[in-house]
Amino acid sequence: MKAAVLYEKFQPLVIENLELEGPKEHEVLVKITASGVCHSDLHYMKGDREHPMPVVLGHEGAGIIEEIGPGVTYAQPGDHVVLSFVPTCGRCSYCVKGRQNLCEARYQLRGNMLDGTTRLRNGSQEVHHFNGLSTFGEYAVVPEDSLVKIREDAPLDRMALIGCGVATGVGSVINTAKVKPGSSVVVIGAGGVGLNVIQGAVLAGAEAIIAVDIYGNKLENALQFGATHMVDASGEDVLERVKDITRGEMADYAFEVIGSTDAINQALATTKRGGTTVVVGVTPTGAELKIDPDFLHLDRILMGCTYGSCYPRADMPMLIDLYMARRLKLDELISATLKLEDINSAFEALDQGEVARAIIRY
Ligand code: COD
Ligand code: ZN
Fold first, then answer.
1. Which pLDDT score is estimated for 108?
2. From the CA of 165, how far away is ligand 2's center (Å)?
3. Which residue among 6, 7, 68, 308 is least enclosed by CB atoms within 10 Å?
4. In Å, how far from its chain's centre is CA 167?
């Protein structure tokens, strides 16, 4: 099958014909219909984060089950699925206490399947999986526990976005921060995930939703997704603008959706006394955060967040129902649809701030 391989950081992805071994116990073969191009993949290409290589990246995908391995009971060939980049085993202490996004299985993957081996190879060379998914290929072998079955009338290309950007962004508002109606919300970084933080804030009934970005096109997008104010961080004083908009109080909630320590500090500074700052982005390995402890002393809450604190099998079907009921925007997120061969240009466009979300359609 055709797949995009990352051999080394700072190098473009290479389209290769890889061998994909069939599914083993509790695994399935999925025909990928579409994959989103997310900044998290780009972090590995740019060396911000480390991963065993070579690797087929891609963690935002949807598709149709082609074949099931021994012992699989959750899904059948023909089922439509969104892929979760965290497998949820249902048995570890995190899963049984409702913290499925932190499932132990996630930490067993380490670039392989759950049994510690890979199904991908290029001739004699082993190729690694990414988060148990590797959606930048025509097919993927994934753990049964990474599957989320979805309704069949939902368009499978757009469903890819549910698997990361939507679940992460909307979830950070609804599950992690539990934003209250009438709140003021600052969102720093109005990209593919940030736009979903914005639409999560709309769903939660926020009153003021202040989008902060350095590109005008991103801010225009933010308005379309329900932001009430936009702040251009490349030219405006972010703290002053948030102060004005919130009548001097600063915001009830601020979300950092870039992955930068400066932006985390900016998010803290835009949060009012007693408010909540949520860090959605992951900073480069080795980064250190320096904060003024006074910020925390004044009853502020600083929260981390992974995968929107979601339970994929409960939250993703719910998000899809909202989309089908026109209460959630997905079509507007997609600013480019490309073939796998053009994946490097999709990453360049993401890096240059030109797209909200590009998707690869197979
Ligand atoms: N001030 C304001 N906005 C900025 C600045 C700045 N200094 N610098 C960049 N931005 C804007 C960009 O213009 C862009 O619009 C936005 O920030 C970032 O958006 P994208 O589309 O490039 O990135 P996303 O939305 O695909 O990913 C953002 C994450 C924060 C999720 C990602 O970078 C990350 O840290 N991922 C790891 C965390 C995670 O949850 N991973 C799991 C799968 S995503
Ligand atoms: Zn992602």
1. 96
2. 6
3. 7
4. 7
